[in-house]
Amino acid sequence: MAAAAQRHQKLAEDQDEAEDMQHGPFPIEHLQTSGIAAIDVKKLKDAGLCTVESVVYSPRKDLLQIKGITSKLVPLGFTSASQLHAQRLEIIQITSGARELDKILEGGIETGSITEIYGEFRSGKTQLCHTLCVTCQLPLDQGGGEGKALYIDAEGTFRPQRLLQIAERFGLNGADVLENVAYARAYNTDHQSRLLLEAASMMVCSYDSRQCYSSLQNRFFWKRRIVSEANASGKFGVAVVITNQVVAQVDGSAVFAGPQIKPIGGNIMAHASTTRLALRKGRGEERICKVISSPCLAEAEARFQISSEGVTDVKD
């Protein structure tokens, strides 16, 4: 009898420990433990909501449009600062490929948040994204995430051969690197929205056990051109990277200082992004990155270089 009680206590402790270890995202099936019927969970999943977080982040009016769904869904709630701190400790920084750039980013591109990169033509946006597609596959001790990449391309600038060149630099098998990058060409915003729903399903279906699913949170790099649904960073804990174009904004001061370069999207883009990075051309293949806004990074600049090996340190 005592042995049975000890086994029961041990199982309960293991379950509590497993729940403590997983800070999210949680599969949509987890809602059944909160009293949501299995048939309702299936309706949510069929509507493209594959995690608990995706339900929490969805507007109430959108949820009620799903046939048969009522308002009995997971409410938002508070968490302690210590719990949030524990979650932040699990964040991974994906190396950019350049040490000076990684330094101002405090390690690299952060998982669980949205990083917007904007700049003029040939400022290095696409080359940085190509490099991240490879570095996210590196081991953790080499600045990677031991994972995969998902690349949604709205401009037709993705080139697989660039990944092969960058993979050779890091000693990775080129065929494996290409296999670990899911690619889609988006032709308009509606098409892109459909691709994002498909991407959410891919992220869940690729990890069908609790243990594998919990590891998903740090294992995807996601490149996009718009942010209408860029809260995937919160839904899945992925590193979302958005590239953005710029326009010249002329005002009264332009007569003396010239036109100001501003990213497209105004306040909508500014508030949607966690970290904003501005790229500009330097001398030759040299590029400059400046941290424009971030809740945890200081405003700073770093130099990097574009070469056949992707983003690298500047060779003086």
TrEMBL record:
Keywords of this entry: ATP-binding, DNA-binding, Nucleotide-binding
InterPro entries hit by this protein: AAA+_ATPase, DNA_recomb/repair_RecA-like, DNA_repair_Rad51/TF_NusA_a-hlx, P-loop_NTPase, Rad51_C, RecA_ATP-bd, RecA_monomer-monomer_interface
Q: Which GO terms describe its cellular component?
A: condensed nuclear chromosome
Q: Name one Pfam family in it.
A: Rad51
Please give the Gene Ontology molecular function terms for this protein: ATP binding; ATP-dependent DNA damage sensor activity; DNA strand exchange activity; double-stranded DNA binding; single-stranded DNA binding
An individual GO BP term: reciprocal meiotic recombination
Q: Which residues form the RecA family profile domain?
A: 90-192, 253-316
| UniProt region (Disordered), positions on chain | 1-20
Q: What protein family does this chain belong to?
A: Belongs to the RecA family.
Protein name per the record: DNA repair protein Rad51
Q: Source taxonomy lineage?
A: Eukaryota, Viridiplantae, Streptophyta, Embryophyta, Tracheophyta
